[in-house]
Amino acid sequence: MRISANPLRGQQFPAVLLLIAAGLGLLLANLPTHDALAAFLDLHIAIPGTALDLSIAHWVSDGLLAVFFLVVAIELRHELTHGELDSPRKAVQPAIAATGGVLVPIAVYLLIAGGDSTTAPGWPIPTATDIAFALGVLAMFGKGLPSRVRVFLLALAILDDIIGIIFIAVLFADDVQWLLFGLAIVGVAVFWALSRLLHAKGHPLIAVAMALVGVITWGLVASSGIHATIAGVLLGLVMSPVPAGRTRHALEPTVNGAILPLFAFVAAFVVIPAVSITELSPAFWAIVVALPVGKIIGISLFGWLAMRIRPKGADPALPFADILAAGALGGIGFTVSLLLANLAFADDGGIRDQAILGVLVGSLIALVLSGIIVSLRARWYRRVASASS
Fold first, then answer.
1. For residue range 130-156, what is the model confidence (pLDDT) as tens digits?
2. Are 224 and 176 in contact (CB under 8 A)?
3. Using CA atoms, how far apart are residues 193 and 145, in angstroms rounded to an integer?
4. d(CA 13, CA 132)
5. Do the beta carbons of residue 378 and residue 143 sit within 8 Å?
6. Confidence bin at 126 (pLDDT 50/70/90)
7. Is 367's pLDDT higher than 70?
8. Strand segments (E) across the chain
9. pLDDT tens digit string along 13-33?
10. Which fold has domain 13-172+227-388?
11. Domain boundaries defined on the chain
12. Pick from 30, 134, 264, 265: CA 20 to 30 A from residue 14's CA?
């Protein structure tokens, strides 16, 4: 197996970089640097002749993050057509586990924070799994684990991403301008046609035209009231496979090394509230519990049930301890959870900041817990392998 010399194409380094960026954002938000950085992030940049007038923070979360979702969508399409989810036989077990990994965290969140109308809208936040972080932890601590554990986790996290994308598209649309969105769909169709032409002809001017159409489509989606990152999803899903693969390969270092760390920094740039633990918002506690606890219970329970009812011809059942490890890794919400926190509480900065802190704390707990479980499980597999050799 060939290993890339570029650490930004790996799994461990990008995960560490994300954690550092989030920690730095949280630190600088609570030092005297806060006011100057907050003023900078609130600085608005408009595109003349359009309705686009976004702060620097929103250019990161709505603009740059759309590139991340483009790459995610390309991977989603590959897995759904040629990868780990290309048949019902492959998809049924992780799909059932992913369902538990969504329903149980929602139930936990609503149990803790659902009784208050100001905090109840945050229920989608703990449903996400951060693929980069989860695979990074697996790579760091999982030496010796069988490859099927990684395959199960990857399929599970991809299905989680699909659910997160649906939540963003459906729940957080605001006063949708259907004409603009219809024009965006036309842009997606033109992008699709150009990608096939690029596959057939390979002329660089076609790639330039695709980039231009992609930017215009993003602008139309952003102006329509649908969250701008959905543009990246739509474009990634329709791109022809060969250009899509090359695009993903070209963008991966930039996404891992710049876009995601920038988003993590901006999203984590929140002031820790000067209140006692008992005065923290129910949204904070709901997320802190729902991510590590709700995820591990939901994924493990539903995953165990999926293994019991798997169809004929399916892969061998994973041991419950391996499903437990995948469940712990699933609690690392981070990137998409941070985006969902910003969207769910966009109109209430105080609760939004506490929800973001909840994502950071809950994901950190899940990270530590999953590191311990994965390490113990990997050690057991290494011991078995050593005894049998």
1. 887 888 888 888 888 888 888 888 888
2. yes
3. 43
4. 10
5. yes
6. very high
7. yes
8. 44-46, 53-55
9. 888 898 899 999 999 999 999
10. Na+/H+ antiporter like fold (1.20.1530)
11. 13-172+227-388, 173-226
12. 30
